[in-house]
Structure formats: structure tokens, C-alpha cells
Amino acid sequence: xxxxxxxxxxxxxxxxxxxxxxxxxxxxxxxxxxxxxxxxxxxxxxxxxxxxxxxxxxxxxxxxxxxxxxxxxxxxxxxxxxxxxxxxxxxxxxxxxxxxxxxxxxxxxxxxxxxxxxxxxxxxxxxxxxxxxxxxxxxxxxxxxxxxxxxxxxxxxxxxxxxxxxxxxxxxxxxxxxxxxxxxxxxxxxxxxxxxxxxxxxxxxxxxxxxxxxxxxxxxxxxxxxxxxxxxxxxxxxxxxxxxxxxxxxxxxxxxxxxxxxxxxxxx
Length: 268
Fold this sequence. Notes:
Elements: E1 4-7, H1 9-13, H2 22-33, E2 37-41, H3 50-55, E3 64-67, E4 72-75, E5 81-84, H4 89-102, E6 105-109, E7 114-116, H5 121-130, E8 134-136, E9 150-154, H6 157-166, H7 169-174, E10 175-181, E11 184-189, H8 194-205, E12 212-216, H9 222-227, E13 230-233, H10 239-244, E14 247-248, H11 256-266
Parallel strand pairs: 1-2, 1-12, 2-3, 7-8, 12-13, 13-14
Antiparallel strand pairs: 3-4, 4-5, 6-7, 6-9, 9-11, 10-11
């Protein structure tokens, strides 16, 4: 029997209008009533999912979320951090210099804000989606005590595609690099990804990977889909995510999360 379901947010649980369908609501509630752990696993900061956690009643004692693509694993009731892996100011400056060479927009996320040396529409989108402040600051003169969780290259999808082809191989050896959306390329500590976040939480809860379902749609979901006992790709997932999955569900507009929960948990 599956004991934990880790669910991506954008493109997976959320519809295109960023709402949760009644069908998904109902399936999650019923799974939770059966004692199954429902864990939101997202690239967003915790502030960016608080309203969804509240909406889904996932803030009880013993509820958890995985934020920043696995950089932070947190109890949603107490706020206690189970695990946290951050980046350094040196990482930020290194990637900023690379962004200037590649002529691509950049921003970084701290635990509570989005910071950028130059505001673009995608930095505004990041801040608006997650209900966090957007600050324009110099990365060259940044306070050395600033906490950096992740760094992102952000640009038009077609342009970002050309930038990705120019990124040196050693960057992929130095960082976890994931494309979380057509306009977002994320850089995290080498040990950070959603799969590692799910694994850390599973160990904390005494749950084996064979008892875990992970559901996602984008490149930043690949690690957890490969890790899970049952890795599920959305019908709208990137091709490489579908190729790695054990099962392909319906799209986010067709309540694909509810379909998975109904098929593999509630019908058993």
C-alpha cells in the first residue's frame, strides 16, 4: 500500500488558472482520511504555497511540504525545518558572471524574497506567483550574510533554449540544474532536488520508496519520479518526464492527480 504521495504544483496539481479542481480536492481529502501523507513538492518557496496548504487542510500536525525544489523540507504545522541545503554568495556571483557572458536575465530566491540586478517580466511573475517581495539589488555588492536558496536564469523560452546549449558541461557537474518551466532554468546545490527532498522526508517518517508515489510534469520533477516506487507523469508533462515515468495520468486540466489517487490508493 502507498503511504505517501508527493505532488508537484504548477502544471500538475494546479490547473492553468492556478486553482485546484474539486476532483483533486476530493481525492486528496479522502487519501488523507485513509492516513496517506499528501506532500506538496514544489519549486516555489513555502510562502508561495501557504494558501494552497490551507485550502487542502495540509497544515495539521504531521503534515509536511517540500519547497525550493527540495532545498527545504518543512513541517507545515510547526514550521520546523526537517532539512535545508542552501547556496553560497560565491555561487550567486559565479552564476551572475556566467549570466552576463551568456546575456541572460537572472534572479535568486532568498527564504522570503526574489532578488535581481535587473527586473524583468519573469522576475515579476516569480514574485507575483509566490506572493513575495521583488527587490532590485546589485549582485556585485550584495550583503555577504544574504541567504541564497536557489539561482535562476529567466528569459523567453526560445532564447533560454539557445542559452542552455551554451552552458559549459562543468556547470552541470557543479550544480543541480533543472528546467522548471519553459522560461525558468534553476541552479541549486548539487545535493538538492525534489527526489532528495522526498527521500529525506521518507526516512524521517520511516516510509520506504516502494510506498511512495510522486507526480509531476516538468524537468524539476524528474528526480522524484525516478526515485518513487510509482513515478507518475502528467498527460501534459515534458517528453523526458513521460519517458522516465512508470505511469502517465491525465492532464492537469483533466484532474490527473485525482485520477492517480483514485486508481492507486482509493480503489484498493
